[in-house]
Design a protein that fits this description.
By secondary structure, this protein is α/β, with parallel strands linked by helices. The protein folds into two domains: about 55 residues, no CATH class; about 325 residues, Aldolase class I (TIM Barrel, Alpha-Beta Barrel). The chain is about 50% helix and about 10% strand. It is built from 18 helices and eleven strands. It has an eight-stranded parallel β-barrel, surrounded by five helices. Strands 1-2 form a two-stranded antiparallel ribbon. Helix 1 packs antiparallel against helix 2, helix 9 packs across helix 10 and helix 10 packs parallel to helix 11. The longest helix has 22 residues. The radius of gyration is 21 Å and the shape is globular. The chain starts with 10 loop residues before the first strand and ends in a 16-residue tail after the last helix.
């Protein structure tokens, strides 16, 4: 592990405020610093070091930001691109480095790093750690400008809510507070799980959804730092359910506006035929997905024209065939969420030692045995559970040797290159820099952090 004393050569710490004295040396030290920040055995030390990384990043020009003003611009005039929102479940620092490297090469500014409520749990990446890993990568690669970090699917679990509404709401409020403290200035509220299809009208069906989303949005607004307007996303159709309609969008947004008079959502997630992670067949291959692109076009158009939102958001898209991604900007989709495809590259790349993959799978057999569905093949079971192989084994993933990681990162780099091109965010940085003026929310650090 790094000797924190080395950091004194390149940063100073006075009255809890960090200043970078030598940017080049700091970049060279970042691999060691982020490793220490993630794996130091003392929890309080880890938190302090994660905060140190974040403050260093701000000093070096990589600033956690809200995408709100860009999305307001998209609501006025669609710029022709779809923003990729990328969930990184494992090898987070290495993968983020690849993303920033490609972003610098392709002049990309419109991109989001995100992690969902469920992922925070099973990947053992709390918001502060996730922000630190992403910003450490930005520093290491020399990326400057706004960095959009998002809480994805801050979802109310239906059975929990029905048995104890206040307990479930308060859990989400606690998660929101933790996320904003960690400088997630973009948060997607998913209360679509509460939609009641037994009600006679669309508005009554959507009422539990928009009422809770409005309450949580008001709570988010109460926590915003000075100068920051958090971008809030809503959701009208639970992913994996029936396809959404423009009339459902209107029912949700009209009800939301009646319930909460402040600044509302900037985008809306819809269901168009996908399922998170894709649908795996008994032989381990993925079933082909048919997205209803007409729905995306209609809802994006209504969201912009009638409500000034950035447009519709597509979830569960990373396992689509490569040739499908160009359709998102063509249908004016404002944001697309990508996760499982990156995970698949990590697990399926030939460079990953079979012995290590088997070690992960043995762990899953023991820890996830209750999740095995009747009739599932091994291939289906491992595919559906291997997202949970990153958390407890995080250090072993991180410690994989360079000759294993490099081919995985090269394949990921090729994937990000394709996504940036097909989603048309290549060259988006000037527009982002014009629309988004980062606000560096300076936070204090313990003076003894360097020992």
């Amino acid at each position: 592990m790094a000797s924190l004393a080395k950091l004194k050569e390149c940063i100073s710490l006075t009255n809890g405020k960090v200043r970078v004295k030598d940017a080049a040396v700091m970049r060279a030290q970042m691999d060691d610093l982020i490793y220490e920040a993630v794996f130091n055995p003392d929890e309080e030390k880890r938190k302090s070091l994660q905060r140190l990384v974040i403050e260093i990043a701000k000093q070096m020009g990589a600033v956690p930001s809200s995408i709100q003003s860009l999305y307001e611009e998209m609501g006025r005039s669609y710029p022709g691109f779809t923003v990729p929102a990328m969930n990184i479940r494992g090898l987070t620092y290495d993968t983020s480095r690849v993303i920033f490297k490609k972003a610098i090469e392709k002049n990309v500014g419109a991109m989001i790093f995100e992690i969902a409520r469920s992922e925070i749990g099973y990947t053992k990446q709390k918001p502060l750690e996730y922000t630190a890993c992403v910003l450490a990568a930005a520093v290491r690669e020399g990326f400057t400008g706004p960095v959009f970090i998002q809480g994805d699917h801050f979802q109310l679990i239906r059975k929990n809510y029905l048995s104890g509404p206040d307990l479930e709401k308060n859990y989400i409020k606690g998660l929101i507070k933790e996320a904003i403290d960690a400088e997630f200035y973009n948060i997607d509220i998913d209360s679509s799980t509460l939609v009641d299809l037994d009600k006679p009208t669309l508005k009554e069906q959507q009422r539990p959804n928009f009422a809770i989303a409005a309450e949580l949005t008001e709570y988010i607004r109460s926590l915003e730092p000075a100068g920051v307007t958090v971008s809030v996303g809503g959701e009208i159709g639970e992913i994996g359910g029936k396809n959404s309609t423009p009339d459902e969008l209107r029912a949700y947004l009209d009800g939301f506006k009646e319930t909460y008079k402040g600044k509302g959502v900037s985008k809306l997630s819809v269901q168009t035929g996908t399922a998170h992670g894709g649908v795996v067949l008994p032989d381990g291959t993925l079933a082909k997905v048919k997205i209803d692109f007409d729905t995306l076009r209609q809802i994006s158009d209504a969201a912009r024209r009638e409500y000034g939102l950035s447009g519709a958001v597509q979830h569960g898209a990373s396992t689509l065939p490569d040739e499908a991604f160009h359709t998102f900007p063509e249908t004016t989709t404002s944001e697309v969420h990508l996760a499982t495809g990156f995970q698949n590259i990590m697990y399926d790349n030939r460079a990953l030692p079979a012995a290590f993959r088997n070690e992960v799978y043995e762990y899953l057999k023991q820890e996830c045995a209750k999740e095995r569905k009747e009739g599932q093949t091994d291939e289906q079971f491992f595919y559906s559970t291997r997202k949970k192989g990153f958390g407890t084994l995080k250090k072993k993933w991180w410690d994989l040797p360079a000759n294993v990681k490099e081919p995985i990162m090269k394949e990921l780099e090729d994937k990000f290159d394709l996504l940036f091109r097909e989603l048309r965010v290549v060259g988006s940085k000037p527009l982002v820099d014009k629309a988004v003026k980062p606000v560096a929310v300076e936070k204090t650090l313990p003076d003894n952090i360097l020992g």
